Amino acid sequence: xxxxxxxxxxxxxxxxxxxxxxxxxxxxxxxxxxxxxxxxxxxxxxxxxxxxxxxxxxxxxxxxxxxxxxxxxxxxxxxxxxxxxxxxxxxxxxxxxxxxxxxxxxxxxxxxxxxxxxxxxxxxxxxxxxxxxxxxxxxxxxxxxxxxxxxxxxxxxxxxxxxxxxxxxxxxxxxxxxxxxxxxxxxxxxxxxxxxxxxxxxxxxxxxxxxxxxxxxxxxxxxxxxxxxxxxxxxxxxxxxxxxxxxxxxx
Length: 251
Hints:
Helix content is 29%, strand content 24%. It is an alpha/beta fold.
């Protein structure tokens, strides 16, 4: 029996209108979709009526399936001759563990196609009117995961500051440690930032403040995942008053 193909598909930041044409066509034609919890229900609604949908949703410290089991599921279904659409929020190769799933499939001789998506960072920034790079404010952008193991031991020095933008994925739960770490590494307490919750969705919120106030901001506003933290001068360009407010609050 000929094996099926595994399609690692980026579902983009949430809005179905931001899917690539390739992603939309695969979702609409797929008989089997294995999806993450961050994929918006409106995107899953594009699937055909007889499609089999399997959720492998992950939350902090709570996984429906461990990653090794997800890899095994994809390989098993493909070996049975079924094409599999593996649907991931954002882009599959940006904090989506798509690389691990691709390698697991290729190790078993399974064909894999990568369908990139608009990343959560790009979608959230665009929806918030934040230019991640700007000739007058930032020529460097860095992406980091805020809930990885050994966070305190990682070297983030130089990732944020003048002329730089730092985008933190999965940083809501570790906001106090993130703020403490960055300030300990020399980042100014009044550095402006934005917390973007539910980007590209009707319930999207954009919260702004200085770095020193990040923990209080997240707690007071009860920020929930999915959310991104964008740190840098570019976040203050949307509203000139933000920078002044940040300095006032940090004083």
